[in-house]
Specification:
Length: 400
């Protein structure tokens, strides 16, 4: 830290430092004075979330003696994630108050700029300090008194302004680069999905639609008794919805069954296609290249006519097949595809096994290229995040 910098507690820098108001559901109304909550506080940014906005009436405002907050005030969330994140209030065009788990910070303009502090709250040092002061079992939080004692580096105001200006410019550039990388990431996946849809919607001559039960053995998994630990071991992999990888392969190493446990389970031979048949991830697909067993949340197809399991897997990724899954699962709170519904789902098959294999190989190659591009863009995004952290560290150690 530079020689002319000081260190102050957060509370020492403020004209106002206090928590928001305790507003119960019964106190809220459809319009009036807007209630800003922890969900509106992003990491350095205000999240408007206008569609979820809540309000209290003028009468309630007076009855509860609420504290009004204004454009330019800082709000700090005392709840994760992460605790201690802050934002600067914009002009929302509405009168505002905030919830009790948000701390209101109004700085003494001769000591600290809100923009300087807002950047500081995104730094590793600050977030690590706050995290070290959080307590609680079910829901961690930092107390207002602990937050008040957090130490803040305080350069002279001109130096604070210089740092803010540099970070504004750098972060704008990083935001632009990030937007490009995210767009390229989306485009890489979109190209694969577009080709996938094109092949299966513009079918060639001789393609036939067949139910899954017509092309192989369909079954639903089974779950051994968890209280019998002898059922579990490393004799054969035991696949669950969480074991499906994004490329259709399966994570075989998470759980397994013993030989005795496998004896009472339904074996799924290598070369089968698998799909999650219940819950939020219904329709998620994969294929196995070794024998496995599955739990009751996974349906399987073992082709008996030599059909390519990867060809069928790729077809099950299409929007048209996924629509069939959703339609068959019904409108219940918990969507489900039972064995009879699974067996009745249909796919389109070319006239020869060779053609299936050729198409599947082309998709394999395209998927490999897509994943290569996605990896590049993910690395760029990670590098941009690391650059932001590095700039913040340099800024608040006096090295920017």
């Amino acid at each position: 830290m530079k020689a002319n910098w000081q260190t102050r507690t957060l509370a020492e820098l403020c004209e106002i430092f206090g928590d928001g108001d305790w507003i119960e559901s019964k106190d809220q109304s459809a319009e009036g004075i807007r209630l800003i909550q922890t969900g509106n506080v992003g990491e350095g940014v205000f999240k408007d979330r206008g569609e979820k906005a809540r309000y209290i009436s003028e009468e309630t405002f007076k009855r509860l003696r609420c504290t009004e907050i204004f454009e330019g005030d800082c709000l700090i969330s005392r709840l994760p994630d992460p605790a201690g994140r802050s934002c600067i209030l914009p002009d929302t065009g509405e009168r505002m108050i905030t919830a009790v788990d948000c701390t209101i910070v109004r700085f003494n303009s001769k000591q600290a700029l809100p923009e300087f502090f807002n950047y500081f709250t995104q730094s590793r040092d600050y977030l690590s300090t706050v995290d070290g002061e959080t307590t609680g079992t079910t829901r961690k939080r930092i107390s207002r008194s602990k937050l008040a004692d957090v130490l803040i580096p305080v350069p002279p105001i001109p130096e604070q302004q210089r740092i803010v200006t540099l970070l504004d410019e750098a972060f704008d550039g990083i935001a632009t680069a990030r937007a490009h990388a995210e767009k390229n990431l989306q485009n890489a996946r979109a190209i694969f999905e577009s080709h996938l849809q094109s092949v299966f919607s513009q079918r060639g001559d001789g393609w036939m639609e067949k139910k899954l039960e017509e092309i192989g053995k369909t079954q639903t998994g089974s779950t051994p008794k968890t209280n019998d630990r002898a059922n579990y071991g490393d004799f054969i992999s035991f696949v669950k919805p969480g074991d499906f990888n994004t490329d259709g392969t399966l994570d075989y190493d998470k759980d397994g069954l013993s030989e005795s446990g496998a004896a009472g389970a339904r074996k799924v031979p290598a070369g089968s296609v698998l799909m999650v048949c219940i819950g939020a991830t219904i329709g998620k697909c994969g294929y196995c290249d070794q024998d496995v067993t599955t739990n009751q949340q996974v349906n399987t197809l073992t082709p008996s006519d030599g059909s390519s399991n990867r060809f069928i897997y790729y077809q099950m990724l299409t929007e048209s097949f996924q629509r069939k899954v959703i339609h068959a699962s019904g409108q219940a709170t918990l969507p489900i595809i039972n064995k009879s519904k699974w067996s009745a789902l249909s796919v389109w098959l070319p006239p020869t096994i060779t053609e299936q294999a050729t198409i599947a190989t082309k998709f394999d190659d395209l998927l490999e290229e897509t994943q290569r591009l996605e990896s590049i863009y993910q690395q760029k995004l990670a590098a941009l995040d690391e650059l932001k952290k590095s700039l913040l560290h340099r800024a608040f150690s006096g090295a920017l």
